[in-house]
Design a protein that fits this description.
By secondary structure, the chain is α+β, with helices and mostly antiparallel strands. Helices cover about 30% and strands about 30% of the residues. It is built from two helices and six strands. It has helices at about 1-30, 120-129, and strands at about 40-45, 50-55, 60-75, 85-90, 100, 105-110.
């Protein structure tokens, strides 16, 4: 009876180890493909209407890291035009971290930024400085 119990225990341990190996490789492989890769940036609109740019993750919670927003500065004098610039979330006056967490039900839509995206070009320029 001991041999049967030992064999069952060994089989269960092997099954658990195999399941952990499969889970690990699925996780690491899944990070590189659809929908969110470590190297891709996304545009994200929340139901508030705000649009953020950054690296979106939805597991285990929704968050945007390396977050940027478009900020429009009103003209100081009459005749001047408003200026628009992309700024990191961390540059806001209350100095938040550059990661934003939000509820999944606040997400209206998201899309990957293409390699020819003007926003992505500005982000790359800012990171290279």
């Amino acid at each position: 009876m001991f041999k049967i119990s030992f064999k069952k225990t060994l089989i269960y341990i092997l099954i658990i180890i195999l399941a952990l190996i499969i889970a690990y490789f699925s996780y690491t492989w899944g990070k590189q493909i659809f929908p969110f890769s470590e190297s891709k940036y996304q545009a994200v609109q929340l139901i508030s209407g705000d649009i953020y740019y950054g690296k979106l993750r939805t597991f285990p919670c929704c968050k945007i890291s390396e977050a940027y927003i478009i900020q429009t500065n009103k003209p100081q004098k009459e005749g001047e035009t408003a200026t628009t610039q992309l700024v990191p979330l961390s540059s806001l006056f209350f100095a938040p971290e550059n990661t934003m967490h939000f509820s999944k039900n606040q997400l209206l839509w998201w899309t990957n930024l293409g390699n020819d995206s003007q926003v992505l070009k500005v982000i790359r320029e800012m990171k290279n400085k």
